[in-house]
Specification:
The complex is a heterodimer of chains A (384) and B (522).
Chain A (H helix, E strand, L loop, with lengths): L11 H16 L4 H18 L9 H22 L7 E8 L10 E6 H27 L2 H6 L6 H31 L7 H4 L2 H26 L10 H27 L6 E2 L2 E2 H22 L14 H22 L20 H11 L1 H4 L19
Antiparallel strand pairs in A: 1-2, 3-4
Helix pairs in contact in A: 1-4, 1-11, 2-4, 2-12, 3-4, 6-8, 9-10, 11-12
Chain B lengths: L1 E9 L8 E8 L4 E5 L6 H8 L2 H4 L4 E8 L2 E2 L12 E4 L3 H4 L5 H12 L3 H14 L15 H13 L5 E5 L7 H18 L2 E5 L12 E5 L5 E4 L1 H6 L6 H8 L9 H7 L1 H9 L13 E11 L4 E11 L3 E5 L6 H9 L6 E5 L6 E4 L12 H12 L5 H9 L14 H13 L5 E5 L7 H16 L3 E5 L3 H7 L2 E6 L2 E7 H4 L9 H6 L7 H8 L1
Parallel strand pairs in B: 3-8, 3-9, 6-7, 7-8, 13-17, 13-18, 15-16, 16-17
Antiparallel strand pairs in B: 1-2, 1-4, 4-5, 9-10, 11-12, 11-14, 18-19
Helix pairs in contact in B: 4-5, 4-6, 6-7, 13-15, 14-15
Classes of the chains: A mainly alpha (384), B alpha/beta (522).
Amino acid sequence: MGRYFLPRPIHPFAWWVWAIALAVAANGTTNPLLLAAIVAVASLVTFARRGDNPWARGFMVYLVLGAAIVVVRVAFRVLFGGGDGPTVLLELPEVPLPWWVQGIRLLGPISLEAVLAGLYDGLRLATMIICLGAANSLANPKRLLASLPGALYELGTILVVAIGVFPQLGESVLRVHRARKLRRSPAGRGRRRRHKVVETILIPVLSDALERSLRLAASMDVRGYGRHGTASTNERRWTTSIGLAGLVVVSVGAYLHLSRTAPGPTLLGFNVVSLGLLFAGGLLVALAMRRAGRTVNKSTYRPIRWQGAEWLVVLCGSAMVAAVTITQRSAEAAVLVPAISPPTWPELTTGLLLGLLAAALPAFLTPAPSLADVRVLNTAEGLS
Amino acid sequence: MIRLEQVSFRYANSDALRLRDVNLEIPEGELALVIGPTGSGKSTLLGCINNLVPQFTGGVRSGRVLLDGIDTTSLLPRELATTVGYVGQDPLAGFVTDVVEEELAYSMEQLGFSPSEMRRRVEETLDLLGIADLRGRPLRNLSGGQQQRVAIGSVLASSPRILVLDEPSSALDPVAAEDVLALVSRLVRDLGTTVVIAEHRMERVIEFADSVLRVDAGGSVTHGPTREVLAGSPIRPPLVELGVRQRWDPLPLTIREGRRHAAEARRGWVEQPPTLPAPPGAGPVTLAAERIVVRYPQVVAVAGVDVTLRRGEVTALMGRNGSGKSTLLWALHGAGRRDAGTVRGAEAGQVALVPQTASDLLYLASVAAECANADAEAELAPGSTLEVLQQLVPGIDPQSHPRDLSEGQKLAVVLAAELSRRPGVILLDEPTRGLDYSAKQALNGILTQLAEQGHSIVVATHDVELVATTCHRVVVMAEGEVVSDGPTRDVLPGSALLATQVAKVTNPVPLLTVEEFLDALH
């Protein structure tokens, strides 16, 4: 047990499965209590188990974004109405609009029902976005890319390099812009100079970026990038065909599942045909990935192994989805979508509470992330 | 270990050979130093070893390359990754990942090392380079010297038998450069790696170089023992220059050897001190700055600095990287940030600043267009900037693209454009970066000429030899403050880090340059 809790990063896929499960659960309800609880759980786990890379600090941005979404949704209901009910909170004068914008109302009476509808709706969207933000903070996107199967390795490299280019591009722009200030002679200021802004900044920055990417490419080549064995044409054709077929099957299965139009028997309330197609398609894609990845002779430094803690995280996320799904099919389904007209006070059931508790467990039952920079608190150097 | 047979190289669009019939053999465990003027084909020669030239640069190469007895002429660079480790000039440009540890592992990941082997080697490399405390740090936050050490470590981790270094210290300040070069010498001694290194601070490397490869302008390469090749070379460090001029035998390569040869002369000067050239008289003040403060949220970059510049005076601004030199220049110019303090004499157009990356200011398609633009901006007669440029550096083709010019030529174009506004004060931010000995000599000529015309000049630089020949005054900064300010002859010889090679040889007599040494003898 002592070894289990040694600080180590959790596999990024596990966090993504957990976060997507939370988002799926949020998608199935408009109950503001449940949604707020999901946000609380996501925040709790994120603050307890996020690492110390720059991505981890981005979680606050997602929280602010979520709050903004709720505010905007409610503000729209107040401004333009919609979903109005009998309980009028405030009687605002309606702004008369010309005939060609008929159908749109500006201000007018604000009903409790309209505000609640906006609030529930916004809260649901905000919760889902915050869940994704939690995944982004808990799982370093770069480690996620590094954990991709071999077949997607080159795609991952491209993304990693592209992410790294942006700060450099920003630096170039700042430097050139600063240099441009030197040339601004008082006599030559005016329209003739202003239309050259694009030219004077863009050309040095772009040629800079081009030179740099050439040097990076040379450096990667020299260090053995792209040294994998090549597959025969025939083999590659097979791999591509299997992959494409898998994707088609997955798409059909997903369509049938989401549109709920699949024929055939059902098992535990799920359609066997659509689920079967999804499963088969997934298998085909996995097979194609495996075949394509075989030719990549590349290893990963300090790979994150899938261990007990990862299973625990996945299970905890799934428990939340299960709780919502079971409630949906039970007699208490109305709890998930509380009535707005007339407004009722939202409630939580024991089942949902248990699901929430399970989803919060990773905050306590997983090993803490290993903080690389604990020793280095001196960030001032980064500025010089 | 490395054998080139009849190797010639030219770019596809020109007939001029960059390398001509190169034959050479570097035995295992040797350190070979590559010297030659900028643009002579040093990088081309280095690139030939792991086939970056021509596989990556394009062009036509003939002849054969053999590494460890195996013909590698037509292999791709990536296939040589286990044999040859290659480190370029700018470490930051070559980093693929963003954390020290991952960067060290990158090459091994590509080569398919097993995770446990990789882990062991990363730990060993961290210790070998003395960067274990940096393992989790973002690469961008490291200092230049640390970055270059990581870059060397990242190729060493997969233990190549040959290490190729293309001017590894050119972007570093003297202390960091010494750090990196000391590391290289340790690798040669402890690991027995074969090293081929191009380095313009050759005085730091020649003492442990086994042989020197001199690339001449025509593309021919001379390979031989260090002293022999240096004695016939147009480019050599001041100490070797002194040794050649004084016919010292054997040629001194280290300060210690130099001091032994000069012992007699020093004894003579103790009894009869040599007459030293007098510093020029001070002209009227052109710019006076008082209590300049520049502060960023977490750092005070310049902490209350006073600067007075006089007509016809060349001032050197020295200090390690990050000591506030650049920030001070930008604050004096007025385009940069200034939180407190006053600058008198910096009225509009009176101060010109040439930034560190001079090419940032060049964006037109030809030198002529750049000059015409400068004329139009300063409302001068067409052609006057071009004329100034021809005076500064004769022989630049006005129709050539600024990006194709050498670093020194780019600098001259920017300087000419700045001069078109007839500034009284000229500030240059590290103009010697990427310049070789001959380009520095040309810069020296330009600065002297401008000072004689009555300009006040400030040069931020690490190059003590340039300071010794050109500058009248030295201001040394540390942590945003001025730590010493005085005539060059008072500041340089007394400092362990800033003394020129000649000053170290003649210490305690304050002679700075080879010319002064020779004059003092007669």
